[in-house]
Design a protein that fits this description.
Order of helices and strands: HHEEEHHHHHEEHEEEHH
Strand content: 5-15%
Helix content: 40-55%
Number of strands: 8
Distance between the termini: 68 Å
Largest sheet: 5 strands, antiparallel
Number of helices: 10
CATH class of the domain at 200-297: Mainly Beta
CATH topology of the domain at 200-297: SH3 type barrels
Radius of gyration: 33 Å
Strand order of the largest sheet: 7-6-5-4-8
Length: about 300
Amino acid sequence: MIPMSVSREVSSEPVAVPPRRPFRRAVLGGLGVVLPPLLTVVLFLWAWNLISHYVLEPLENGACHTLTWATWDVRCTPQPPEADDRYARLGGSEVWIPRRVYATVQNDPGTPRPQTAREYFERYVRLFYLRRWLVVPLFLVLFVLVMYGSGKFFGAGVGRWLWGAVEGLVARVPVVRNVYSAVKQVTEFLVRERAVEFRRVVAVEYPRRGVWAIAFVTGEGLPDVGAAANEPVLSLLIPTSPMPATGLTAMVRKSDVIDLNITLDQAIQYIVSCGVVVPPHQPSQDPVAQQIAAALTARETG
């Protein structure tokens, strides 16, 4: 048995307080400030490199070959083809090209340096016709026009039937159909005008009693289900984190759902962040969540 005096001495000893680690806290705070804009820039750069490599560069190469063919003017003769000195000779060969092409390429030959007439013309076309400050806006305009025309054509009539036939063929390929279906769901959720209007955001007990999940009301439920439940039911989309484009469609009694005072965008932010980003008018006790919610509010209001 421990004596009373000893027990008092033991209980009166000071409790060790863990160090605050200000350096670590400052580094984490800096990462919290820098990472969101940095990752945003990296994401846009990755998307631009992907579009430039797989879309813009092939289009530029095709346009370069076409313009080279359209502007081709090469003479093969040991003497100058014309007396007005409009042609320049390539080295000691018998090939003569227009002097404007020769002079433009000589000012900016690039790497590797052009040697043949075709290389001179291709370099000239890229320097004179395919400048990036001219190509990128033109590409964006053409892209919007093509998307507009595609939407009009495939949205009705023969175009819709044709696209349905193509999707039917894709749906028969075992592996491709699964990937295509997932990509199509994400794309339609992000860029297409929603055919289903999410009327309000609610909370429902799922997957069991006592566990609550956010859901979107998509409409009234089937009458047969409401008759069996002896109560009107609602059709809900219960999204999954962190990808709200996929989820579960369920029919739930109206009395079993709770309307939430949050917008659709706030609900999507909450789902994508796995519950970290909480709407500003429903603050969380987590300091990190409070800081994120405050930053989002400042960005929206500012």
